[in-house]
Design brief:
about 400 residues; alpha/beta; Creatine Amidinohydrolase, Chain A, domain 1; 2 domains; six-stranded mixed beta sheet; about 20% strand
């Protein structure tokens, strides 16, 4: 198990950020078209939402290098606009594709690198229905990909506009493709993880200065990520409160580079030396991250890998019970990690997940945990799975 640290800093290297080139977008659409044909379907409507990449914009970025730069959703105002903040890609089983987008001002260059046929319509339902008809699919069998993204109302209106279409919900068809990353994708992911690690170290340096507030660190994070060609999506915490000397300071940073997410959580005692209790607590979390990462071996299931994390906390350290885990003692959901890339998705690192670990996966290992009197700590890092073993892309 190794940490895949880049040999040079990402600072000021925005011209060197890896990018997905047009042939890969074309190959993605071709592969999805092939899957449609194998399933006996004539085409697909793929739905994305995005005011930022974090608003479930991954499908549109994956197929057409696009997400809306507007809102993640805006109340309809008929007949002027409908389904704003969304976009769709209509694809035939023969590989013909078109992007339907709500904005007419942004991202033209990015889209041009990925797809030729682009339709702009402030009524995305109407634009999608018209495109389906123009492609001769109005009486076909179509997959709806993005069923958890499109509202019931807008889907009902799309069905009303296309009464001859027989719909099949097929989200997994594209999610399964996106689960395994190409080498160009992994280059972007590695770059983003190195960038956020550099910024994280700067943040700990700032946190060690007396009088520093959480907002000071938020401001620095946003600036430093931007200087590296990345965007900050979220940082916890970010109040005006000065950081307390001798406390456990935890920074949880989520952002993306070229749409691909990084998501790290790191904790240290700042402005003072750690007590034994603090040291033991932080060591518990860091060692969990290392043990769980080592368990991410190609060929085993996520269920089996998650049992290592469960044994670590429940049996070896008796930190909590299995019932505590299911109740959410380790953070926002009962899992020791999850897949990442252009979106958060399966496989989850928990009991019952029977997906097999394969080379080319990008997985987050994580634990968010607290102890009375010590506060919250977090250990979260990105892991690339390879035939030679798991590779840490960041450090807890």
């Amino acid at each position: 198990m190794t940490w895949d640290k880049m040999s040079v800093s990402t600072m000021g290297k925005t011209d060197d950020i890896p990018r997905i080139e047009r042939p890969e977008y074309e190959e993605r659409r071709k592969r999805l078209a092939g899957k449609l044909g194998e399933a006996g379907l004539d085409g697909a409507v793929v739905v994305s939402r995005g005011g930022t990449a974090s608003d479930r914009a991954g499908f549109g970025i994956y197929l057409a290098n696009y997400y809306s730069s507007f809102f993640p959703g805006l109340e309809d105002f008929e007949p002027r606009w409908k389904m704003r903040g969304h976009n769709t890609v209509v694809l035939t089983k023969d590989g013909k594709a078109a992007l339907i987008k709500d904005m007419n001002l942004f991202d033209a260059d990015a889209v041009a690198r990925a797809i030729d046929d682009v339709v702009q319509d402030f009524d995305v339902v109407r634009g999608t229905a018209n495109t389906v008809k123009e492609m001769g699919l109005e009486n076909g069998k179509l997959a709806l990909i993005g069923s958890q993204i499109m509202s019931v109302r807008h889907f009902e209106e799309l069905k009303e506009a296309l009464p001859g279409v027989k719909w099949t919900v097929s989200d997994s068809m594209l999610l399964d493709m996106m689960m395994i990353k190409s080498e160009p994708e992994m280059e972007i992911i590695r770059y983003g993880n190195n960038a956020v690690m550099e910024v994280s170290e700067l943040n700990f340096n700032l946190a060690n200065q007396q009088g520093t507030t959480e907002i000071d660190i938020y401001t620095q994070t946003e600036k430093e990520l931007a200087l590296r060609g990345c965007l900050l999506g979220w940082l916890r915490p970010r109040t005006p409160k000065p950081i307390e000397a001798g406390s456990v300071y935890t920074q949880a940073i989520i952002g993306w580079c070229q749409g691909y997410f990084f998501d790290i959580g790191r904790s240290r005692v700042v402005q003072g030396e750690p007590t034994k209790e603090q040291e033991d607590f932080l060591r518990l979390l860091r060692q969990f991250a290392e043990v769980q990462t080592e368990a991410m071996q190609v060929g085993r299931t996520f269920h089996d890998a998650a049992e290592v994390g469960m044994k670590y906390f429940v049996e070896e350290h008796k930190e909590f019970t299995k019932e505590d885990f299911e109740a959410g003692v380790l953070g926002t959901f009962a899992s020791y990690g999850h897949s990442l890339g252009l979106n958060w998705s399966r496989p989850y690192l928990r009991e019952g997940e029977d997906i097999v670990i394969q080379p080319g996966m990008y997985i987050q290992v994580e634990a968010v945990h607290g102890r009375p009197g010590l506060g919250m700590g977090e250990a979260e890092l990105g892991v690339e799975t390879t035939a030679d073993g798991p590779r840490m892309l960041s450090l807890p």
